[in-house]
């Protein structure tokens, strides 16, 4: 750090959307020794909680932002200095930093996140509960999503072939889920309908070169949407492997900002809870989201005979500024055809 004796630890910026963070816990007390391997504090952003390290040696001389306080990106959180630095020099550093003056013989210790960690929140009063950063982020996202002019299109899909393929691959030692089949089918269909994973710019449509599918994962305190990137080039087995890895990281609190960013189409599946059908809100910046219901036994007429089939209802909610009803209906017809001939997804 250019031989600097005093270092400022500032609120990091993890991803383009991060504007502020909350200090969850100071892992080093004032007067504690710090090395480049020391986890100094934990910070909660909108999407995760991460332990922070700094690439310097020294002593934590001053904590400026207490536990529970929210601070903007770039805010001075603490001061780290060599043991021989006088208190007055530390005070002068803080004064100059906060006033924006140029600092001599000092540096900013850029924090690094070493992976999200799970943090136990303190108990609160019976009649109140603090809004976590994740719940606040969800509130802002769904509020923004609600302002999008959107409409749903629902189809019933015969899932017998899809379930047969799923069971056969599972019996052969595969680790995929039925949702992986749906992700693969959605990606194949999207290749024929690029507007369904486009974005709306100022006065133009933004067409994306890759199909990056966000998959909703429920957590104790809300949900996150890790992104399976480049789905157009992935086999069913590759999608299953990446999905499993991302979901495990999300549920253990280790999902990174990169894991949760860059999606251009989303899938939310509530079928495992017995939900027959629902319409999901479009995440801001995307054109559509696919809501997947349960696969259930239903009576149907085939060849003039009433038979029991395995059906699933899926609903595409689309941004009417980007696609219209006919385009959405054509996409859902393509998705239905792919899933009803699911054996073709294996290659």
- Residue-averaged pLDDT: 86
Over all CA atoms, what is the radius of gyration? 25 Å
- What would the principal axes of the Cα set say about the shape? elongated
Number of helices: 6
Number of strands: 20
Which CATH-level-2 architecture of the largest domain? 2-Layer Sandwich
First CA to last CA: what distance?
A: 52 Å
> What name does the CATH topology of the largest domain carry?
Chloramphenicol Acetyltransferase
Provide an overview of this structure.
The protein has 347 residues and is an alpha+beta fold. The protein has 2 domains: 6-116, RNA polymerase II/Efflux pump adaptor protein, barrel-sandwich hybrid domain (OB fold (Dihydrolipoamide Acetyltransferase, E2P), Beta Barrel), CATH 2.40.50; 136-346, Chloramphenicol acetyltransferase-like domain (Chloramphenicol Acetyltransferase). It contains 6 helices and 20 strands. It has helices at residues 87-99, 133-146, 160-171, 178-190, 236-251, 325-340, and strands spanning 6-10, 20-26, 33-34, 39-44, 49-53, 58-63, 70-72, 76-81, 106-109, 112-116, 150-158, 199-200, 205-206, 213-215, 217-219, 222-224, 227-228, 265-269, 288-302, 305-319. Strand 19 and strand 20 form a beta hairpin. Helix 4 (178-190) packs across helix 5 and helix 4 (178-190) packs across helix 6 (325-340). The protein is elongated, with a radius of gyration of 25 Å. Residues 114-126 have low confidence and may be disordered.
